[in-house]
Design goal:
414 residues, mainly alpha, Growth Hormone, Chain: A, 2 domains
């Protein structure tokens, strides 16, 4: 894995990805807290979630389809520069608080950030694939991502406590500006540009391409179902900690920290096991998430719930990166950016139905049963992974439209 780190441009890309995730963790923490404190309204907090994560999932494929027609180095530099400007504008939010404009800016920022991710990942894949470093590069990025999402809320809360929301947002603006300058000076990031059709036609073509390609279709469908199940418990962790286990705010914090710590362990395990078949890593990660949910469902005290959160976090550190790597190994270069954009949209959009389903179960039957259902669902998904992601039709390289592409495909998630 050390060999891939010798590529100067790769180091810039990893730094950009890690700083991007860190900045968004800091910004989301600070701005969501600001919205709730100023409004005292759960509906306003829900609006922040919708504009920062859910709605961008439906906007960014078109943004990526437009941006994918140009040099990725310049596109990334512009996207991060725009985010820097946006956060400079948001720095005035605490002293001039108006909910609607803030949510509008958050929507724009969420869309820009979500668009940058697949472009960054596709650019990285093009850089490292010729040397056979795709799995190595994803392992490095995954570890960086784990630390970013763990440290982001911690540092964000420290900044807010020390100097308020403005400082946290200004720090984000500085980070995005730094990323923009770093990528603008990078070399070797150019790609063969696709035909210059309009964004809508490009998105439609990408969907058709994914549907025709058996492996890609199954990977994306699998992840959509899995992520719906995995997300069911996210709004219920605070309920489990405070109202079921009576562990208070400290217990809730312990659950979050345990999950984040487990994710870092999972990232390290993926780095060690990255040569294993992808379907096996996906199945293992999904089963670990399921076991973690089941332990949390039956936990008599916060201690066992924390153990379950660690195990679930380990799975969370393995499953998404194994799935994304599998997708990258199947997709042709010309469709890489748009297909990864569809994948990122799944990660952003499908937690929405999961939240609703988990909330409904918890309301009707209690939080424990919701965790139990999520655990059984995650284990079921793990058992289905070998059946869905390792099939003769995919191995043969022939899709259902009769298109023979055996020279371009590998065995699914191999």
């Amino acid at each position: 894995m050390k060999a891939v780190l010798t590529l100067p441009s790769f180091r810039r890309l990893v730094l950009a990805y890690a700083l991007n995730e860190f900045a968004w963790s800091v910004g989301n923490f600070a701005l969501s807290l600001l919205v709730y404190r100023r409004t005292g309204n759960a509906l306003a907090s829900t609006g922040f979630f919708l504009t920062s994560q859910f709605l961008p999932a439906f906007i960014t494929p078109s943004v990526v389809a437009w941006a994918d027609r140009f040099d990725p180095r310049r596109v990334l530099a512009v996207l991060y520069a725009l985010q820097a400007c946006l956060f400079l504008t948001l720095a005035a939010a605490p002293s001039h608080f108006y909910l609607a404009p803030i949510l509008a800016l958050v929507l724009v920022g969420g869309s820009l950030g979500l668009a940058a991710r697949p472009i960054l990942r596709a650019t990285t894949a093009r850089l490292v694939t010729p040397g056979g470093f795709l799995r190595d590069s994803n392992a490095v990025i995954n570890v960086a991502f784990g630390f970013s999402i763990l440290l982001g809320p911690i540092i964000g809360s420290a900044l807010v406590l020390a100097s308020g929301t403005t400082l946290a947002v200004l720090v984000d603006a500085a980070i995005f500006g730094t990323i923009s300058l770093a990528l603008a000076a990078a070399h070797g990031l150019s790609a063969t540009l696709p035909e210059r059709r309009g964004p809508r036609l490009r998105v439609r073509a990408a969907l058709e391409q994914a549907n025709r390609h058996v492996a890609v279709r199954r990977i994306l469908t699998f992840q959509a179902v899995a992520w719906t199940i995995f997300s069911m418990t996210l709004p219920l962790e605070v309920v489990l900690a405070q109202h079921v286990l009576h562990a208070g705010a400290a217990g809730y914090g312990a659950l979050l920290s345990a999950w984040g710590s487990g994710a870092i362990v999972g990232s390290a395990l993926y780095a060690r096991w990255r040569a294993l078949p992808g379907w096996l890593l996906i199945a293992f990660g999904s089963s670990a998430i399921g076991v973690g949910f089941l332990l949390m469902a039956v936990a008599p005290s916060i201690v066992l719930a924390v153990v379950g959160a660690v195990i679930g976090g380990v799975g969370n550190g393995i499953e998404p990166v194994a799935e994304r790597t599998a997708l990258q190994e199947q997709v042709e270069d010309g469709w890489m950016t748009l297909t990864l954009s569809l994948n990122e949209s799944i990660f952003q959009a499908f937690p929405g139905p999961g939240f609703l389903l988990g909330g409904l179960l918890a309301t009707l039957t209690g939080a424990r049963l919701a965790f139990l259902v999520a655990g059984v669902g995650a284990v079921s998904v793990a058992l289905l992974a070998p059946l869905l992601l390792r099939t003769p039709s995919v191995v043969s390289g022939t899709d259902e439209a009769g298109d023979d592409r055996s020279a371009q495909r590998r065995e699914v998630i191999s």
